[in-house]
């Protein structure tokens, strides 16, 4: 596997890999199951938008994994130098490349990037149901510091339908 810097022409491929990889472990997918489509967009559209936001925020913090000159995965990072923290918002691989140690290699690359920036901590989040992520992250020295519950409230007033 070769790891290289992100290029803007990678975006669509990274979005497609992400949408496929996050099926079943996306907060936005859970929201859609509970409330349906939001503003006419599905969870996949929102998740793809997260990757685009990563590319705008800190494109030099995205690292692309290639195998035989084909993009097979990536990791996105950004950092807050004042706080000394590096963040990893997204990492995904095509199905046939999962479970082969490539995610570990990308994470190690991201951690080395953070060390080179002089940061003190790296932060990554995952959902409880992501057993693979939970195992991988702890095996690389990440420690659980908190659990978070995501709440969503519909904003339409309860009597809006009665008024129309």
Automatic annotation (TrEMBL):
Pfam families: Acetyltransf_1
GO molecular function: acyltransferase activity, transferring groups other than amino-acyl groups
InterPro entries per UniProt: Acyl_CoA_acyltransferase, Bact_Acetyltransf, GNAT_dom
Domain of life: Bacteria
Residue ranges annotated for the N-acetyltransferase domain, each copy included: 1-161
Transcription found in the keyword field: no
Gene3D superfamilies: 3.40.630.30
Keywords (A to Z) from UniProt: Acyltransferase, Transferase
UniProt keyword annotation of Transferase present: yes
Xref: CDD domains: NAT_SF
PROSITE patterns in UniProt: GNAT
The name this protein goes by in its record: Putative acetyltransferase
């Amino acid at each position: 596997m070769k790891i290289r810097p992100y290029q803007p022409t990678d975006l669509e491929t990274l979005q497609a890999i992400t949408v496929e990889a996050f099926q079943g472990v996306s907060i936005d997918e859970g929201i859609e199951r509970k409330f349906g489509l939001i503003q006419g967009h599905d969870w996949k559209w929102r998740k793809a938008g997260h990757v685009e936001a990563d590319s705008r925020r800190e494109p030099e913090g995205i690292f692309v994994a290639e195998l035989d000159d084909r993009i097979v995965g990536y990791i996105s990072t950004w950092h807050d130098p004042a706080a000394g923290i590096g963040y990893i918002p997204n990492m995904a691989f095509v199905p046939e490349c999962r479970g082969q140690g490539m995610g570990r290699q990308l994470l190690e690359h991201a951690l080395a990037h953070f060390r080179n920036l002089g940061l003190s901590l790296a932060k990554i989040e995952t959902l409880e149901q992501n057993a693979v992520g939970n195992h991988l992250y702890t095996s690389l020295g990440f420690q659980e510091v908190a659990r978070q519950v995501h709440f969503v409230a519909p904003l339409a007033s309860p009597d809006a339908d009665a008024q129309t």
